[in-house]
User: Fold this.
Amino acid sequence: MSGDRLPADFDLQSQAFPGDAKPGRSAREDAGLQKPSGANAAWLGRPACPEEYRRLRLCLDSLSDQEILEGYRMLRDEKVPRAEGWYYPNVRILHGTAFEREKDRREQHLWNETHGENEVVRWYREAREKPCAWWIENHLIARHALTSCMSCGVCSSLCPAAEFYDYNPRAIMEIVQEKDEQTLVELLRSDTIWYCYQCASCKAKCPRQNSPFGMLSSLRQLSQLKGYHVHSIRGRQQVAARHLWGGNLWNRACSLYFRNPNPEAHRDFGPRHEKLYKSPEIAFRQVGASPDMPGSLSARKVHPETLQEVRRLWHAGGALFLWQMIDEAAARGAVEDGLTIDEYHDKAKTEG
Amino acid sequence: MRDNAKQADRRGRGNLWGRHIKSIPEGGYYLTLSCIMGSFFPGTESMIPRVYDLLGVRWGTNPDARSGWTCCTGIAYHGDVMPIEGTLLTVARLWSIAQASGLPVITPVCVTSFGVHLECRDLYEKEPGLKEKIDRLLMDACGRTFEIPKHIIHVSDVFYRYRDVLRNRHFRYTLTEKSTGRPLRVVDHVGCHYSKIFPVQHAIGGAEDCRVLADPVRAWGGEEVDYPERRGCCGMGFRQCMITPNRGATIARTLKKIRSMAPGRPDLIVTNCPGCTTFLDKGQWTIHEVAGESPFIPVLNYVELAGLLLGWDPYETVGIQFHTVPVEPLLEKIGIPFDRSRPRLEGRPYGVGQAPAGPLTAG
Assistant:
């Protein structure tokens, strides 16, 4: 490497920039990556039936915040030595569990209490109480997404979502321009706003340089802040999105964790994918990635200090407030449906 | 008269092209990696540093694990669980780290990240006072400072810049059929967030005539094949592909793309965006199962393609085993040797007849 302004002791190999030699690695050692750890607490399970769900919920409810947070941290940071460093075998067990979701809710609640409210959160809290038309005129993304629309319909003509769903970005831009409060509320409560693919095909072709996909993104934020999203099937899915992407960010500093596309979740990816994921650690190590290990490349376990730093950013940027709004709406929905929060999550994730 | 018209046409094309020229610095690249690429095609991330070293360019990322790169939050932002301020702060932190490393050129490998970095910069340019606000929040949250970077370029832009150097000095193979010398027929898919968010300023050739993959394909010996849905979305759609009940929306788009390119008899689909690579590749199995169509066109991103033409090990370095559509038939055409004893090759072609373990809607 010719990075002459980098520190002299920067060792590519130990920083997991592979490609050349892979020192000290043996097939036997990689095979060891698949051995289960000692973590076998009941609340780590992935329930398959309502009875198991209820038992799990009772168990989680019986644990104090400290027990949950400490238990999670100890499991997450339990490590086994390897020739090149460490492997963290419990990350794969923890990810995406009801235990991790419960831990996140409690940890983020404590975080909000401890760190207080900053100017971004205050702005969002106030915006939540104002009319939707105010949001369109004031939210950073909404303001720059619309200059002057002449309703030419180019956005709808090449929109992939309009081809598949009963969806018309041109009509949405008209509603946004008319700013009729009741119509806007109806829009935010509907499935319609959740159909957009966020591909930006509309932005590229708009003769007035509007950004319908940006406006949709902004409207979705407003829908969640006001709790309108739970009135539509696709809006309710946001509780799953919050724990999938939000959980990955909060716990692993990535939006997508390398174990998310497991064959159980992606049977549509076919038998070769299923075969590869029987031992993803070995497959990832083979090409130089760092599955649940320290490093700089794919699938690495992020250093706790880095994680702590970006968590502060997401608190400052209003993410925790948004997640809290989604959680509160989900909790209300679960009570109305007579479900535990875990059942509600799974229902929202698979409904539609 | 005809000559005048031709000259005018050439001038017009020149002027149009001139709008889409972008400056690609020769080095100083700060590499930010990709959640999607790392989850589906980890070999790609491992190869980029090797290619940069081969080219002798100055590049790097922060070697300190405690202040390393993180996700840009792009998927969470477009998946609507991250407010824009959270994304602005995350990206500002990455810029801060890059600038402290003395590497001023931000080079995301992910197309979503590329779009997110550019959107952030665009907001700073449009919104008075935003920079000061994010400065304040970033300093309060983690004590860092940042400047708005002059250059944000995608890794594919770097490959575009060095496409002839790679071919002339480093490649062992070309995109031609070994037995006949025929240029291989290649369709490209550049990725919406590369070419559509800022088509004039940041996409080589713009949204409609994007050259970022097509020109390297030509330079590397292949034949560029046009198709009607070339600029259409692959269907990834963030919440469409990742929330299971919405996945029909994704595969409907993928099917339209694949059907559109199939009559051109492509030997290869070359891609830019990790999400598109995933769904154009793995979606072909779904299409096979759901629609009964079996196009099975190999899909490679531009880094994997370069790695194979460089003669790097298809399995140990490039990681072709991560692909659902087998790449081995393409290797045979080009004449790239591979280990035929690999157990992963069992069941070729493509495991046809092997039913998935459960219904397609599960998960």
